[in-house]
Each structure stands twice: as structure tokens, then as C-alpha cells.
Design a protein that fits this description.
alpha/beta; globular
């Protein structure tokens, strides 16, 4: 059983929902990423999403786009991201880590080389935003041969046929994009999200995570009642951006929001 499977099984037994924070590797500086990962776990994160900086992050809103720009200014590459996970594993061998980004850097490295390097670093899965399930066979096979999960996005516009296709290709969990738009956009309509999750559950037994638009503890608690995982990204990256001139405060600010979300979700 993988770390991701173990984590969801444990939380299911405890009657709790996974909290999955996202940060961009190398933002605001490469030396701060691993300490931030540990701070997120200490604050209550169950699984970490670590963004791979990319020059054209098409699914990401302005906040995460700027985070990628800050990381790329420090020349952070996919190799560097894997090295960060390796350092994280020196102290934490139980928290799942999913690298999230775009296909181009993986294509450049090569599917098999990426899968080998990711497994050796201690990565548990990958979410490649622009990899459609129709074209995913080779990447799925490479990752599965190294016990890695490929996590797919499902959208409000995904019909039954496409949801079935996603379910066949996905492992680990499915990430439901809870609104039409980019990360950090518009407000969520809970009833609509709930209806779509019910539809997705008709085609898969995989855990369902909800993200894009979760900005505070109250929203996280609301989503925790209907999802298996709550994913938060832009709200955390915004805190990093707001404290660029006082980097010593970033760990406490980010940890504080995650802690508040964890408390609210557990109370819900």
C-alpha cells in the first residue's frame, strides 16, 4: 500500500478529511521550501502538493504564476524539486508528496527517467495539469512501474464519458476543480460541488479532493463535509507573497492558516 493509500485509509478510519496544502518549490527562495514543507505537516497537513515552477502555468491564476516567476528567478528546475523532496524525506518518511505541474519538464527528462528519479527521491505521485487521459498511457505505465500515482483533474464540465476515462487512468486520488477558471478564482457554490462529487463517485472508488477557490478555514470546513480531501494553494501562496519583505514570518503565517483550516475541518 502506497503512502497516499495509507493516508486516506487512516483518515477514513478516523472519520476525517485530508488537508492538502500546495506551495511552489523555490518560492520565495529554494532554501525555504523544505522548512516550509515541514511546517505544513506540523500545522496539520496530511499530504503535500509541491508545485514545479513553469514559465507558462496555464491553469494557475496570477498568484501562483508570480510564485513560479519568483522560483524561476532562482533557476529552480524539476531536478531541484526532486532534490527538495529527497531532503524532506531525511526527516519525514510518512507524509505523501505529490509533485504538481506541467508536462513539458517531464517530457524533457523522459518518462522513465522521471519515474526512476521521483521514486528514488521519495515522491508518491504526479499531477500534470496538461496531460489528458487520452494520451496518458505511457506516463501512467512508467509511473506505475515505480509505484507512483498519476493524479488527474476533473472539471465541472467533465461529462460521464470523460469521468469514466479519468477514473480508468487515475490512481491515488482524483482532484476535482471546483469552479470554472484558474486557481484562486471566484467563489464556490457548495451544492454544485456536492452534486458533481456524487456524479464522480458513480464511476470511481478513488478518494476525491476538491481545490481551486478554497481561501479560508470556513470554506475548508464546508468542503470537508463533502470531499475526501481539501486542497488549498493560492491562499497560502498569497501569504508568502505578502511577506516577501519579512521572510522570517512566512513559516508562521502559512502554518497558521493551515492550522486554522485543520481545526475547522476536524470540528466540522
Amino acid at each position: 500500500m502506497s503512502r497516499i493509500e495509507r493516508t486516506f485509509a487512516r483518515l477514513r478510519a478516523e472519520g476525517r478529511t485530508a488537508l492538502v496544502p500546495f506551495i511552489t518549490a523555490g518560492d520565495p527562495h529554494p532554501r525555504q521550501t523544505v522548512p516550509l514543507m515541514h511546517a505544513l505537516v506540523e500545522a496539520g497537513a496530511d499530504l503535500l502538493e509541491l508545485g514545479v515552477p513553469f514559465s507558462d502555468p496555464m491553469a494557475d491564476g496570477p498568484v501562483i504564476q508570480r510564485a513560479s516567476e519568483r522560483a524561476l528567478a532562482h533557476h529552480v528546475s524539476l531536478h531541484d524539486v526532486l532534490a527538495m523532496v529527497r531532503r524532506f524525506r531525511e526527516e519525514n518518511d510518512h507524509t505523501p508528496v505529490v509533485v504538481m505541474g506541467y508536462l513539458n519538464p517531464i517530457e524533457v527528462m523522459g518518462y522513465e527517467d522521471f519515474a526512476t528519479a521521483a521514486e528514488e527521491a521519495g515522491v508518491d505521485g504526479a499531477l500534470t495539469v496538461d496531460m489528458p487521459p487520452e494520451e496518458s498511457h505511457d506516463l501512467v505505465q512508467a509511473l506505475r512501474s515505480h509505484t507512483l500515482d498519476l493524479i488527474f483533474l476533473a472539471a465541472p464540465t467533465s461529462d460521464r464519458h470523460r469521468l469514466e476515462m479519468i477514473a480508468r487512468a487515475a490512481s491515488g486520488f482524483i482532484y476535482y476543480v471546483s469552479l470554472k477558471g484558474v486557481t484562486g478564482a471566484a467563489n464556490l457554490v457548495v451544492d454544485e460541488v456536492s452534486r458533481k462529487l456524487a456524479e464522480i463517485r458513480q464511476v470511481t472508488d478513488l478518494p476525491l479532493g476538491v481545490g481551486f477557490g478554497i481561501k479560508n478555514a470556513e470554506m475548508a470546513a464546508t468542503m470537508s463535509r463533502i470531499a475526501d480531501a481539501v486542497v488549498v494553494g493560492s491562499a497560502l501562496v498569497s501569504l508568502i507573497e505578502e511577506n516577501l519583505n519579512e521572510p522570517d514570518k512566512i513559516r508562521d503565517k502559512v502554518g497558521g492558516l493551515v492550522r486554522a483550516m485543520r481545526v475547522a475541518m476536524d470540528q466540522a
